[in-house]
Amino acid sequence: MKGTIIAAAAAALSGVEAAQLHHRHGHPMLAKKHAYGTGTGYEDECVCTTVVETSYGEPSLVGVSEYEHPAETTVIEEVAVIPTAAVETCPTPGTYTFPATTVTLTETTVVCGATSTSVSPGTHTIGGVTTVVETATTVVCPYATTSTDDSGVVTSIIETTTYVCPSAGTYTIAPVTTECVEETVIVVPIVESYTPGTYTRPEVVTTITETDVVVVCPYTVSPVPEAETTEAAEVPITTTEEEEAPATTTAAEEYQETTTEVEAAATSAATSGGSSSLGSGNDHWAMTYTPYTDDSLCKSQGQIDDDIAAIAGAGFTAVRVYSTDCSTLPYIGGACADNGLKIILGIFINGDGCSNSNPTVPEQISAIAEWAQWDMVDAIVVGNEAIYNGYCTASEIADLVSTCKSEFSGYSGPYTTAETLNIWELDSTSSVLCDALDVIGANIHPYFNAGVTASTAGTFVAGQLDIIDSICPGKTGINLECGWPSAGSCIGSACPGSDAQATAISDIREKAGDRTCFFSFTNDMWKDAGSCGCEQSWGCGSLF
């Protein structure tokens, strides 16, 4: 959950450009639980004493960073109506609709935005505008700061300051000083520039399952030129008095953005677009399969043969497995070969970590390398929500994929990992994994989004795939896990049941079935029912 805090802090400043629509679900474990264990996600933790936030629209009370700036004269300018990403706060779980908005700029506009950076424990001076002068001079330049009214409401503004530079050198105007007790991510106001054009923010409908979630809705520009949103825009500086000297403006520090701009609506009524080497020509590509009996034992080879034959008879072209236990490779692999099915292999990662120090990881890699039936492998999925559960970092997943590539020398097909959309939208994920993976794998469960009904499940999935398609330029997404439970509790409008399951599966097949692994073949009675009462009830094989 630490990532949620960071996103909220950054999103509260209007320059953050990301669509962090969080659609999480309750499937952290998808292999035999008693074999691999469980783990927990991130915990909330406040580690920074200073947070600078911007509020557009309805203001909120926040803390104020204190710093001094050497302005001799100040002119406060009104913030223009500009297409910075809209920051919306969702205080309680539910379905929220944010209306479409259009902003037209007729001239270049300089506004207050935000950026973020990771800092180590200690006191840090960041932000501001840095100018380099070659002689004693006076400069006039705009800079981003905050203003607090009598009630404590903080608003980011642009101020223009006249600053006397007594000699040649480098001067930082209006930086922010903050103190942190441990490594964390902080945000600071910056100056941003937008070029003329028409900017559109589409209507966004999102379902929130947590409290106090911040949603950022970005604008897109049409027609070109596109909006230029920079971390520290070049701003005009006027020099006067002793000598007219050139002044160069740069960022006081360089920052790493923590979010990814996603140009897509949250939902789409059309069948998911994009092409991929994975998928099928019909409306049901693959079925997920785990070889466990109701009492958590391994199924026999005969039972597995019957199950895989039934999956093939239903018209599927591939079977997704999560690990190599219970003789998965010889039994399931052999049955797939006998029935003309491809197999989507999985390397399961638990709380013991991502590297060879976790004994189950090298065991699975060795088993796959020894099996080596590459001609029947559709894809290799390294990890199932391992980042979401806090078991791995994106870099560790990338390293593990590299290890697999070196061990599986005869395999030339695609590699991916399975994560939820909100994890893919983090820059810390996409910036690392886009180059490491061949396709973008997501687990998309409409049931865990309270505004989705069984009849709109496919529309929701197609919309999520549209977003996934935009995460890594040139690479398409696949839906590695998707279904609807036949029993359990309602989550808002999302209610389980046999009829609801049939309706949802039908809609998913129609809208996105050619890129979907349906979850799962039979009910998984070896699992706990979970807080939703639904975890055992996803079996949908009989509906095909």
Automatic annotation (TrEMBL):
Highest taxon of source: Eukaryota
Task: Tell me, in one coarse class, where this protein mainly resides.
Answer: secreted
> Which stretches does UniProt call biased (Low complexity)?
246-261
PANTHER family linked: FAMILY 17 GLUCOSIDASE SCW11-RELATED, GLUCAN 1,3-BETA-GLUCOSIDASE
The organism named in the record is Zalerion maritima
Keyword hit for Hydrolase = yes
Q: What is this protein called?
A: Probable beta-glucosidase btgE
The record's section on InterPro entries has: Beta-glucan_modifiers, GH
Protein family (similarity comment) = Belongs to the glycosyl hydrolase 17 family.
Q: Where in the cell is it found?
A: Secreted, Cell wall
Assigned keywords, A-Z:
Cell wall, Glycosidase, Hydrolase, Secreted, Signal
What this protein is reported to do is described as: Beta-glucosidases are one of a number of cellulolytic enzymes involved in the degradation of cellulosic biomass. Catalyzes the last step releasing glucose from the inhibitory cellobiose.
One GO MF term: glucan endo-1,3-beta-D-glucosidase activity
This entry carries the following GO cellular component terms, namely: cell surface; extracellular region; fungal-type cell wall
Q: Where is this region: Disordered?
A: 239-261
Keyword check for Transferase: no
Q: Which GO terms describe its biological process?
A: cell wall organization
Q: Which residues cross the membrane?
A: none
